[in-house]
């Protein structure tokens, strides 16, 4: 596993592709301590977000998973995440280890539920190609509630619930 405290090892990859819909935020996401300081035009993100599947969970539903410490992990393989729920405690920084077995690009981003827009963005991890593992360092989320995590590249299929309790 590659821990990447100061910046991902893939950041200097020279052959970044930039077809529409992929890598739109490649330059902006390298420093994930600043999940809101994106250089990408928001219109692109909004366009992506608008293609996302509807959220079927209501706000009154019980949390589908419980906090499990501050070191989360998730696997992307065959363009699917191996879990559909992650949870942390409010007010605690945490890490998400994303192990990708795919040559396609993946990432993990967290949004407020029902608000997969620039305004609702909580955190965006760098998009990268596997097979490779990155550890995202995510600032504390102060507000308990139900959020959404997703891969920005496959946002309609690679997604799940992110619980802050
Ligand atoms: Cu993906």
What does this structure look like?
- It is a single chain.
- The two termini are 28 Å apart.
- The protein contains 1 helix and 11 strands, in the order αβββββββββββ.
- A hairpin with an 8-residue loop joins β6 and β7.
- It has one domain: Immunoglobulin-like.
- The strands form 3 sheets. A 5-stranded mixed sheet has the order 3-11-10-6-7, with no helix packed on it.
- With 165 residues, it is mainly β.
- It is globular, with a radius of gyration of 15 Å.
- The N terminus is likely disordered.
- Copper (II) ion binds next to loops.
Q: Cα-atom Rg, whole angstroms?
A: 15 Å
Question: How would you describe the shape?
Answer: globular
Known CATH architecture: Sandwich
pLDDT average, as an integer?
77
CATH class: Mainly Beta
Kindly report how far apart the N and C termini lie: 28 Å
The number of distinct helices, counting runs of at least 4 residues, comes to 1
CATH 4th-level superfamily: Cupredoxins -  blue copper proteins
Question: What ligands does this structure carry?
Answer: copper (II) ion
> Number of domains in the coordinates?
1
Beta-strand percentage?
Answer: 25-35%
Q: How is the largest sheet built, in terms of strand order?
A: 3-11-10-6-7
Give the structural class. mainly beta
Q: CATH fold name, please?
A: Immunoglobulin-like
Helix content: under 10%
Short structural description:
This protein is mostly beta strands. Helix content is 5%, strand content 31%.
Short key terms for the protein model shown above:
binds copper (II) ion; mainly beta; single chain; 165 residues; Immunoglobulin-like; 5% helix; 11 strands; four-stranded mixed beta sheet
């Amino acid at each position: 596993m590659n821990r990447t405290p100061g910046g991902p090892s893939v950041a200097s990859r020279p052959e970044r592709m930039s077809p529409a819909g992929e890598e739109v935020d490649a330059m902006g996401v390298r420093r994930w301590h600043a999940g809101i300081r994106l250089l990408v035009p928001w219109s692109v993100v909004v366009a992506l977000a608008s293609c996302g599947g509807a959220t079927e969970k209501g706000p009154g539903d019980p949390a589908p998973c419980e906090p499990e410490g501050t070191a989360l992990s998730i696997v992307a393989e065959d363009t699917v995440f191996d879990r559909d729920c992650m949870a942390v405690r409010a007010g605690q920084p945490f890490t998400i280890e994303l192990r990708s077995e795919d040559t396609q690009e993946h990432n993990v981003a967290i949004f407020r539920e029902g608000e997969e827009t620039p305004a609702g963005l909580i955190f965006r991890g760098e998009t990268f190609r596997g097979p490779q593992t990155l550890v995202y360092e995510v600032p504390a989320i102060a507000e308990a509630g139900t959020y959404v995590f997703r891969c920005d590249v496959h946002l309609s299929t690679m997604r799940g619930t992110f619980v802050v309790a």
